């Protein structure tokens, strides 16, 4: 039982740290397409780790089934909306920022 | 332990709100609001374990679907200025 608690704590803390890193990336990165990357981290890995940590806490009950349904729906819809957002920005003519100093 | 996860989620929501207020283009704001919605789902799921009320997860499941449809609807409205428009090829 203590092993499951420790696994759940590790998943929850790691997911929270990844969410904060993604939020900092959303705030600090220079242009829209790189901010899209920062937002995508928190939608897939941060949310997944937090929901898996909660699943470890609840055991084999109906709560776990609902959490798994939330996880599956989130894993399908979140990359779809991110892709639609990037494609809409590209169609509308938003140019990515390209600097010359990193091109060899 | 749930308190720590909830504090992390709240900090992320505050950062997303900062980008939604600052954002130079409309797509930055839509991205921030989409991420805010995902974090709201996680917030409701953690709050269910913190308060011990098992009926919050249904709200979280509905919120995922509303967040996805809302993002696509706002994107279509920004692109065409009309929600009933036919897509052009």
Strand content of chain A: under 5%
Number of helices of chain B: 3
Computed structural class of chain B: mainly alpha
- Report the strand count of chain A: 0
Percentage of residues in helical conformation of chain A: over 70%
What string, H for helix and E for strand, traces the elements of chain A in order? HHH
Radius of gyration of chain A: 17 Å
Tally of strands of chain B? 0
Percent range for β-strand residues of chain B: under 5%
Spans of chain B with pLDDT under 50 lasting ≥5 residues? none
- The Cα radius of gyration of chain B reads 16 Å
Mean pLDDT of chain B: 87
- In whole angstroms, the N-to-C terminal distance of chain B is 51 Å
Number of discrete domains of chain B: 1
Largest interface by Cβ-Cβ < 8 Å = A-B, 48 and 46 residues
Terminal-residue CA separation of chain A: 54 Å
Report the uncertain regions of chain A. Answer: none
Helix content of chain B: over 70%
The 3D shape of chain A can be described as: elongated
């Amino acid at each position: 039982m203590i092993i499951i608690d420790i696994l759940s704590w590790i998943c929850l803390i790691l997911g929270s740290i990844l969410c904060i890193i993604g939020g900092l990336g959303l705030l600090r990165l220079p242009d829209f397409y790189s901010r899209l990357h920062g937002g995508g981290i928190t939608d897939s890995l941060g949310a997944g780790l937090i929901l898996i940590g909660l699943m470890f806490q609840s055991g084999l009950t109906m709560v776990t089934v609902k959490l798994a349904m939330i996880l599956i729906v989130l894993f399908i819809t979140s990359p779809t909306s991110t892709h639609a957002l990037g494609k809409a920005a590209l169609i509308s003519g938003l140019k990515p920022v390209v600097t010359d100093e990193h091109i060899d | 332990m749930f308190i720590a996860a909830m504090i992390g989620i709240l900090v992320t929501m505050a950062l997303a709100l900062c980008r939604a207020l600052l954002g130079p283009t409309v797509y930055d704001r839509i991205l921030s609001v989409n991420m805010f919605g995902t974090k709201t789902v996680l917030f409701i799921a953690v709050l269910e374990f913190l308060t011990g009320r098992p009926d919050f997860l249904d709200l979280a499941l509905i919120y995922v679907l509303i967040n996805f449809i809302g993002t696509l609807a706002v994107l279509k409205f920004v692109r065409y200025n009309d929600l009933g428009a036919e897509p052009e090829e």
